[in-house]
Design brief:
Blueprint: H1 10-22, H2 48-54, E1 69-72, E2 81-82, H3 107-120, E3 124-129, H4 139-152, E4 157-162, H5 167-176, E5 181-185, H6 191-194, E6 200-203, E7 206-209, H7 210-230, E8 234-241, H8 250-259, E9 264-269, H9 279-282, H10 290-301, E10 305-307, E11 318-319, H11 331-336, H12 343-371, E12 380-384, E13 401-408, E14 411-419, E15 424-425, E16 428-429, H13 431-440, E17 444-448, H14 454-462, E18 466-468, H15 476-493
Parallel strand pairs: 1-3, 3-4, 4-5, 5-8, 8-9, 9-10, 12-17, 17-18
Antiparallel strand pairs: 1-11, 2-6, 6-7, 12-13, 13-14, 15-16
Helix pairs in contact: 3-4, 5-7, 12-15
The protein binds FE(8)-S(7) cluster and iron/sulfur cluster (SF4).
């Protein structure tokens, strides 16, 4: 049987909603002064009810995403709208990077896959349905999948992502199936803006176009959001930043969704490579630069929690957000696997992960205390090569992404990531690739790695990015703060002059499986 949701009493619910409304975001600029959503130090000022929902959800807590994994099952092929940044040959681009194709599953195959992944990756805590079309345009398959998973893997959080058109009609079922996390992609609250993003929607057996289509979509999205938050379901809003179309407007979207109780806002860059065959890709619509994206996220930070660690992952993604282990769990492989669901082993493993996480937080706090009293306006970005667990544990040449931290006397704040092609191919460094890596982290003053060869070290230094390998396998934030303290000391002594860096590029290509 499906575990039915236990509705909070109305007074409990009101209290939780009040606490959510009062939680003012986590930024250091204009926010509450915390470093990241859910607080890098743990629960922070989050109400316990909400902390329990986010503490091991890798998308709803930046801090959790270093330690806990999610998986998607691609059970929902159909879609009921058209977005100009989507080519329906590929996965839904609202919750995935354009240009990737996922292996579609039946609900029964999906349930088996979840058990298989949960056995191999015990830190996998969340199951999401995010495509390859819109989950709520495929309600029978979507809810059947959730039902089966609730039966076989009761400790796994259920998560859903939708364009929101069908949401008002299905909120009751979402609550009934105990789906605690819902993402709605909201790119506009003005239908005139929406008409430039959505050529049509299909609603109530009829196709609508232009401003009318965008108006209906927007009404459904906002009403659906209100209905979900009224029921205490945690909502994240995804928005695709499309320069010249909705970039300025997203500040208004941010206010609109905050006022309706959204917990988190995830502004993602438009990916519009011509080879993806989307309207925007073919008409030359560009995506934002790294600095443009960060500036908009910073502008919205004072209003509510901003997600900056989204990897725009595929509809069959498996693993930590920065990795893709989907190729290990193809249907053929899963059907051949003999798996059992060991709840106790999963709990034990997750408790060990929690200990490691607490050790990391304590190390960071200790280092931060040493910065207290240091007066400096200097703030800069650094890049980090990591395989997860909050450690500097990746070789420069093997990094498929770099995590970006902003350092200041307030602390080390995660502000994003930059996906890159691996520099080291078959044992040799690729000079062309190195140039693209440098462009991707060009706004950073230093790059922290577990190991790095002589050639890339020299090229990075020449480009003004300091390669730092002395903190191999140590905690990221603590190490970055130690290095930053040394940097400030050199600036103070006149040994170096602090200079701002330039902009950086966001990689346009699709995520390639890490197989
Ligand atoms: Fe999946 Fe989305 Fe749930 Fe996360 S993803 S349905 S909330 S479990 Fe996460 Fe992936 Fe970004 Fe989505 S990194 S694309 S935000
Ligand atoms: Fe594509 Fe998703 Fe938009 Fe549907 S909602 S058109 S699948 S991006």
């Amino acid at each position: 049987m499906v575990e039915m949701i236990t509705q909070n009493s109305s007074s409990d619910l009101e209290q939780v909603m009040q606490q959510m409304a009062e939680h003012k975001g986590c930024g250091t600029s204009g926010g509450s002064g915390k470093a990241s959503c859910g607080s890098a130090a743990g629960q922070g000022d989050l109400p316990t009810e909400i902390w329990e929902k986010v503490k091991n959800h890798p998308c709803y807590s930046e801090e959790a995403h270093h330690h806990f994994a999610r998986m998607h099952v691609a059970v929902a092929p159909a879609c009921n709208i058209q977005c100009n940044y989507c080519n329906r040959k590929y996965d839904c681009a609202n919750e995935s990077r354009p240009g990737v194709v996922s292996e579609k599953l039946t609900p029964e195959q999906a349930a088996k896959k979840v058990v298989a992944v949960a056995s191999v990756i015990p830190q996998m805590t969340v199951l999401g349905i995010a495509g390859p079309g819109d989950p709520l345009a495929n309600p029978a398959k979507t809810f059947r999948t959730f039902e089966l998973i609730a039966q076989t893997a009761p400790d796994i959080k259920l998560c859903l992502s939708t364009n929101g058109l069908a949401l008002p009609d299905l909120v009751e079922r979402i609550a009934q199936y105990n789906i605690d996390h819902v993402t709605i992609t909201i790119n506009m609250v003005d239908p005139e803006v929406g008409a430039k993003i959505y050529p049509w929607i299909f609603w109530d057996h009829k196709r609508y176009t232009g401003v009318e289509a965008a108006r209906i979509l927007s009404e459904h999205q906002l009403r659906g959001l209100e209905m979900l938050t009224e029921r205490g379901i945690l909502c994240k809003v995804n928005s695709v930043m499309i320069p010249g179309i909705n970039d300025k407007h997203l500040v208004e979207v941010n206010k609109a969704v905050k006022s309706r109780g959204a917990f988190l806002h995830n502004i993602m860059p438009l990916i519009s490579a011509p080879e993806h065959g989307t309207v925007f890709g073919l008409n030359g619509q560009r995506g934002p630069s790294a600095q443009e994206l960060k500036a908009l996220q910073d502008e919205c930070q004072g209003e509510m929690n901003m997600m900056r660690h989204c990897r725009q992952c595929r509809a069959d993604a498996v693993g930590l957000l920065g990795e893709d282990r989907s190729a290990e769990f193809t249907t053929d492989k899963i059907m051949a696997m003999d798996v059992s669901y060991d709840l106790e082993a999963r709990r034990t493993y997750q408790a060990a992960v929690e200990d490691e996480r607490q050790a990391k937080v304590a190390a960071k706090q200790e280092e931060l205390a040493k910065l207290a009293g240091v007066n400096s306006e200097v703030s800069l970005l650094v890049a980090v090569a990591t395989k997860g667990s909050g450690l500097i544990n990746e070789h420069f040449g093997h990094a498929k992404e770099f995590q970006i931290y902003e350092l200041s006397t307030v602390g080390a704040k995660f502000v994003g990531h930059r996906r890159v092609d691996m520099y080291c191919q078959g044992g040799y460094g690729e000079e062309d690739t190195l140039e693209t890596v440098i462009r991707a982290i060009n706004d950073c003053h230093a790059v922290f790695v577990a190991k790095i060869g002589g050639c890339p070290k020299a090229d990075l230094t020449a480009a003004g990015i300091e390669p730092v390998d002395e903190y191999a396998h140590e905690f990221i934030e603590k190490s970055a703060l130690v290095w930053f303290k040394g940097y400030l000391a050199k600036v103070a002594s006149g040994e170096i002059t602090h200079q701002a860096r330039g902009d950086a590029q966001i990689r346009q290509g699709a995520i390639i499986s890490a197989a």
